[in-house]
Amino acid sequence: MTEEKNAAAVLRPKQAAPYLGMSRSKLHSISEKDPTFPRKIRYSARCVGWRREALDAWLRGKEGAE
Fold it and tell me: Choosing a second label site near 18 at 20 to 30 A (CA), which of 24, 43, 54, 55?
C-alpha cells in the first residue's frame, strides 16, 4: 500500500526539482515551454504540483529522445 501511495504522490516544485535533477527555475521554464512536460495540478493561484508517475513517464520518454 505504501508503494501505491508513493506512486500517486504529488510533488510540489520544491520536491519536483531535485527529483528531476534541476533547479526550480529550470523546472518552471520547462513546464511553461515544453509541450511534452506533464501538466501542473493547480490547487490554488500559488499552489501547484505534478504527479510523480507523470514525471517518471516524462523522464522515460526523454531517455530515448537524444
Answer: 43
